[in-house]
Amino acid sequence: MTAFSLWVPFDFNTKPPLEYADRFLDTLSLAFDPIRIADVRPGLAWAFAGRKGAEDQHPGQALDEERGAALTVFGPVFEVSGQSTAGQSRDQIAVQILALYDGKSDQWLQSLRSHAVFVLIDRKRGHAIVARDQMGSQPLYWRAGKGGVGLGNTARSLITMDGQRSGANRGRIAQFLVEDVSVSDACGTTETYFNDVSRVLPGHLLQITENSIEQRAYFDIATYFAEDKFTNPDPAAYRALLAEVIATQSTNPDTTGVTLSGGLDSPAIALLLSQHVGPDTALNTISLGNLGQGADESENVRSVLDDIRANPRWVIPDEKAIFDVMRKTHSQLEAPLFSPSPAVFMLLKQSVADAGMHQVFGGLGADEALGGLNMGFLRDLLVRGQLATFWSEVTAASKVNAMRQDLSRFGVFREHVHDPFRSMRPPPKPPAWVDPGLAQEFNLHGGRPVRPRIARLDCFDGRNAAILIRTFTQSFLHYEAQLGIAWGVENRFPYLDPRIISYAARLPWHEKFSQGLYKHHHRKAFDGLFPEKIAMQQKKSLIPAVHDHWLRVAAQEPVRDIVESGGAWTNYLDAKTVRQEYRTYVASTDEIERNRLRRSTWRAVTIELFHQSMQ
């Protein structure tokens, strides 16, 4: 993605000064030297920060003087009314989309597959429509000001408006302290981490008139899950569909890359994209090298590279500079971080930009759409008649490392699907390191919140839809999108394409989780195409041991300075408890104890870096 900002006046017949949109971009500290382009027309002023030589990323525009309508499109559109846009300029695509608009319905938006934001000014009807793509691949924020509405794809661009500077949202940060990334809806609600700045939700639009701003849905993910399930889904048909989606999202192979990991999801993209571009074209790949502490997928990655023609690039974080990367990462994001992992995402995006790539494919969404994020674990045990056996093993070996993954899956089921004993237990207290006054002010509990599932769907499908549109996926989309914006790189997420989401939603649950493996159907589709260690991999490389090493060893001094010196984090956390836990954490030789204690240390560090980035 690339940074853009807009100013929509309430009087759609006036041309606002260009500076109204341009001033929002001035607040950003982008990691690249951008080319600034801008435009003003009745009802809209916009500014865009693009990469040099990346004209293919510039906004598409269309104007219909007779109807008094104008459309600006920020981001790629892959399909219009079922027809691929391959080979067309973004202006040509915008003309097609504007022709679909009739002013009476949202059908024109529903017919698009994209990673884009759409801005339509209809002067005759006296309204503007600003819409975000169906799955939320492109961010969109807004803030009301004097005489109009400011919008942009970074929340930070809207912190200052009309001379008023927004502060941190204490309630949102308080909730962050007791949530886990898998259940947090921090990036799936209209509320953001900044007061006065709001989010447009995935599949939603803002309708702006002279005296109102209304957000409403034009897309409902439940319609996909409510369709009849496949009776005998064909893995080969799924692989062909994924190949078609990747082909429609692909542009110039010379400026396109793939972030390649050691699991199945990104290698599947790389294989299909390599087949699409042909054997004479080398595919650009970017991968993490040996991170240490047992986190090394380079052997798996190299086995994939053996089967495709590629220009591989490797990213190995410099331990001496990792804290500085964490600091820069915070300066680009809306939110504090649930873990240090996004610092590596920052380095990956930088590597993509440094290599001259404009677009990069990633495997985000496969775990959630095609595997239900492990929610089918207990259901699979029940089907196989092994629940009693599993429980006896857990009871006998609950503290054995080998059982941790299964226990984690059990927790995913409880948190996302059903916990029959929740109503019988009193709400647990928040962690001792949370400031007691803050906990009381915002009624914080230590238990992970139960988010309402999507209406009209059963417990599994309802939670699966919520994971995609409200919680887990949206959190990681936030990291990927904002860091792509920081480096002027457009993301491609084929597993979040509406055609793949629609297909995955119709898979019966035994195709999502079976025989102890999630993403069962996805794995069958690539059976025999990759070594078994890749096809069956379930463990991610950014393991807690790496985070542990960064905080205790690589960045020990700046972490200690933050914890011992205090700062903004002491407004949220109990300083005495955090410092006690930090000292025990640094001195401990027990891995399990360190995993438990690390959370308070990291929360103090990330909240402090978040506040410093606002200064």
Describe this structure in words.
This protein is 40% helix and 17% strand. The protein is of the alpha+beta class and 615 residues long. It is built from 25 helices and 24 strands. Helix 9 packs across helix 10 and helix 22 crosses helix 25. The strands form six sheets. It has a six-stranded antiparallel β-sheet, with helices on one face. The protein has a six-stranded antiparallel β-sheet with strand order 4-5-9-10-16-17. A five-stranded parallel β-sheet has the order 20-19-18-21-22. About 1% of the residues have low confidence.
Structural key phrases:
615 residues; six-stranded antiparallel β-sheet; 25 helices
Question: SSE layout and pairings?
Answer:
Layout: E1 3-9, H1 19-26, E2 35-41, E3 44-50, E4 60-64, E5 69-74, E6 77-80, E7 83-84, H2 90-100, H3 107-110, E8 112-114, E9 117-122, E10 127-132, E11 141-145, E12 148-152, E13 160-161, E14 164-165, H4 170-177, E15 198-199, E16 204-208, E17 213-217, H5 222-225, H6 235-249, E18 256-259, H7 265-277, E19 283-288, H8 298-305, E20 310-315, H9 322-332, H10 342-354, E21 359-361, H11 366-371, H12 377-384, H13 387-396, H14 404-416, H15 436-441, H16 459-469, H17 472-487, E22 490-492, H18 498-505, H19 509-512, E23 513-514, E24 517-518, H20 520-525, H21 532-535, H22 544-554, H23 556-565, H24 575-587, H25 591-613
Parallel strand pairs: 18-19, 18-21, 19-20, 21-22
Antiparallel strand pairs: 1-3, 1-12, 2-3, 4-5, 5-9, 6-7, 6-8, 9-10, 10-16, 11-12, 11-15, 13-14, 16-17, 23-24
Helix pairs in contact: 6-7, 9-10, 9-25, 10-17, 22-25, 24-25
